[in-house]
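INSTRUCTION: Work out how this chain folds

Fields: amino acid sequence; protein backbone structure tokens

Chain under study, with its fold:
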Amino acid sequence: MVNQKYLDKAEVLIEALPYIQRFNRKIIVVKYGGSAMIDEELKMDVIEDVVLLKLIGFKPIIVHGGGKEISRWVDKVGMETKFINGLRVTDEATMELVSMVLAKVNKELVSKVQSLGIKAAGISGQDGGLLTVRKKDIGGEDIGFVGDITGVDVKILKDLLERDFLPIVFPIGLDEEGVSYNINADEAASAIATALKAEKLAYLSDVEGVRRDPEDPDSVISEIYTDEALELIDEGIISGGMLPKIQNCIEAINKGVSRVHIMDGRIPHGLLLEIFTNKGIGTAIIKENEEKYWNE
């Protein structure tokens, strides 16, 4: 008799089949951040997930930040870290360090992908005019070289995808004078996914998803329409650090992205579980005319 564990594995593959069929040859933007960028084992789990997506016919793009690694280096060189409204104040010296750290993280990710037999290309938002920015205004406070995205030219990404590369992007853009600015990685991922009209945008971070009860980790909502998310914002249930994430998600959906996922990158192979299982492990935010896969 066949061992039950093999039958269970077959069941998992069958459950994944409709998702593989639906998203074959579709673009998926993965925003990679949080603890999964620090823990080496989790880092490899994420890379393996993305490589698997590529090998079964998806077109993944990784957009990453490096906040924790930047903070570590700022402390290491004895510089002061200052935040205003959750944004890192980035003077000229800090900007130089941010550029160095993000480039270092980027090449490490490229190396890990290529160790699994997939061609990867690490680029910044500066390359090919990918991300154009202006200095961010937060009501009179000067936070230095932090940018708002004003334009996205995805030609370089389309060219890389066409040549079967997996693009890995770090969020530094140029203004019209050619000055470099640091960009929030969530915003960069949303802007890139929107410009490409990606089928999916997935945020990997240190949150489980959207909770119906902010105090109850077991109240994560598997799927939610954008109007339902807006209601939770109005009710104050979505607030704090989750609020800008959800606003980025809703904006991306309103501009053409079909589904946006928020999930906990600390769960091993969470990306595969979210994309290829009916319930998933995080929250999928969907447009009004999309059919829910899971009815809670």
User: Anything to note?
Assistant: The radius of gyration is 19 Å.
